[in-house]
Design brief:
By secondary structure, the chain is an alpha/beta fold. The chain has one domain: NAD(P)-binding Rossmann-like Domain (Rossmann fold, 3-Layer(aba) Sandwich). The protein is 50% helix and 15% strand. The protein is built from ten helices and nine strands. The strands form two sheets. It has a seven-stranded parallel β-sheet, sandwiched between helices. A two-stranded parallel ribbon has the order 7-8. Helix 1 crosses helix 8. The model has no long low-confidence stretch (mean pLDDT 92).
Length: 260
């Protein structure tokens, strides 16, 4: 019997590539994103090419009841989830005081609240019913330091990394693994939508492909790794950060994140 993966933010970028990876490996998928048309197009592509079943849920996960509604819909349709992929999220480039609160409110709701609630809903279900399951949470290299000009986004990704490591430790006794995927800048719509393309960072680093990041995350999750960093050079950054004073780390981050 085929297993099933739920992937949030599945219509574009890393989420889309993860959906394709699961389908390639003969895993059924539940695709969650805001755009119904894009989800249906991906569903048709995956079912036709890989002979798997794809179920779509068009939902804005930043809304308060959305995670519970997704969980309830799956229960109603008797769709059991084996892999939870919390990929949905967004960032915004700009000075903290110049950005509207509504933007941050939605960012925190999606990047933190929705992800945390989905982890809680499915892990509680798995722990009490089956003693197995795998979770992949999309964090970022942003998780390892403060990020002036993207202060809230960097902070949300720090939360994701910390949460993933903590609950991963708790869940071992239930046979559930939690993996935090920490990519650097990636070739997706994120740079444009977040306006991060205006920063010095995007001009001075190697941009990974969404496919490569998805493969790294998928393999790490299947091996039960706690944290995985995409890219050899990126793996050196957390080590360097630990050796430097926090004030200096923040200053360097601010220089890198400044506008071109």
């Amino acid at each position: 019997m085929k297993k099933t993966a739920l992937i949030t933010g599945a219509s574009k970028g890393i989420g889309r590539e993860l959906a394709i990876l699961f389908a390639e490996n003969q895993c059924n998928v539940v695709l969650v994103a805001r755009s119904w048309a894009e989800l249906e197009a991906l569903k048709n592509q995956l079912e036709t090419k890989f002979d798997i079943s794809a179920y779509t849920i068009a939902k804005d996960l930043s809304l308060p009841n959305a995670p519970q509604e997704v969980f309830a819909e799956l229960k109603k349709n008797r769709i059991d989830i084996d892999y939870l992929i919390n990929n949905a999220g967004f960032g915004d480039y700009g000075a903290f005081v110049e950005t509207k609160w509504e933007r941050y409110d939605k960012m925190i709701a999606l990047n933190i609240s929705a992800l945390t609630q989905l982890c809680h809903l499915f892990a509680h279900d798995w722990a009490t019913q089956r003693k197995s399951g795998r979770i992949l949470n999309l964090s970022s290299m942003a998780a390892f330091q403060p990020g002036p000009m993207m202060a809230v986004y960097f902070a949300t990704k720090s939360f994701v990394l910390s949460l993933s490591e903590a609950i991963g430790n708790e869940f071992r006794k239930y046979g559930i693994t939690v993996t935090a995927l920490c990519p650097g800048p990636t070739s997706t719509n994120f740079g444009t939508e977040s306006k991060m393309s205006a920063s010095e960072l995007m001009s001075n680093v190697k941009i990974a492909s969404a496919r490569d990041v998805a493969i790294v995350g998928y393999n790490a999750m299947m091996k039960g790794k706690a944290v995985v960093i995409e890219g050899r050079q990126n793996k050196l950054i957390p080590i360097a950060i630990r050796l430097l004073p926090r004030r200096l780390v923040t200053w360097i981050s601010g220089k890198v994140m400044r506008r071109k």
